[in-house]
């Protein structure tokens, strides 16, 4: 694609995006969720794991990681990916909040983050495989590329 063609495509995409984002849905930082909303999110996520949707989406991400990460399509891919993820959660529990993690709050010491406690995403893992054994994701069996525990 020529530079001019790429520029026109990007301008077209920008026009499409601006038209669709007049009232963007706000995503809360996970620590700002009430315990009830956090529970709704975790239950919906667990349902996606049970029905295979989480594995499908995880595999899509893993299979395309080399093409996406470190390339110009990174932001576009992840925007679509997060929107599809939010739509999948919404099919399980309409209106469920889809939080983000402000990792900059934990960047200096992520191991001690509140997110890696039983109230949020479970501990930092135990045993030689660092399997998560506490919290809403305890003892999850993942099936992307091979069957394994959810590990930190």
Overview of this structure, please?
By secondary structure, the chain is mainly α. Helices cover 45% and strands 3% of the residues. The protein contains four helices and two strands. The chain has helices at residues 3-20, 35-50, 53-68, 74-92, and strands spanning 141-142, 148-149. Strands 1-2 form a two-stranded antiparallel ribbon. It is globular and about 45 Å long. The relative contact order is 0.13.
How do the helices and strands follow one another from N- to C-terminus? HHHHEE
From the spread of the alpha carbons, the general shape counts as globular
> So how many helices?
4
Structural class: mainly alpha
Number of strands: 2
Write out the strand line-up for the largest beta sheet, numbering strands in chain order: 1-2
> Which stretches are poorly predicted, pLDDT < 50 over at least 5 residues?
1-11
Organism: Coemansia biformis
Signal peptide: 1-19
Keywords: Copper, Metal-binding, Signal
Pfam family, one: Tyrosinase
Task: Provide the descriptors you would attach to this structure in a database record.
single chain; 152 residues; mainly alpha; 45% helix; disordered N terminus; Tyrosinase_Cu-bd; Di-copper_centre_dom_sf; copper; metal-binding; metal ion binding
Produce a short descriptive summary.
With about 150 residues, the protein is mainly α. Helix content is about 45%, strand content about 5%.
Helix-strand blueprint:
Layout: H1 3-20, H2 35-50, H3 53-68, H4 74-92, E1 141-142, E2 148-149
Antiparallel strand pairs: 1-2
Helix pairs in contact: 2-4, 3-4
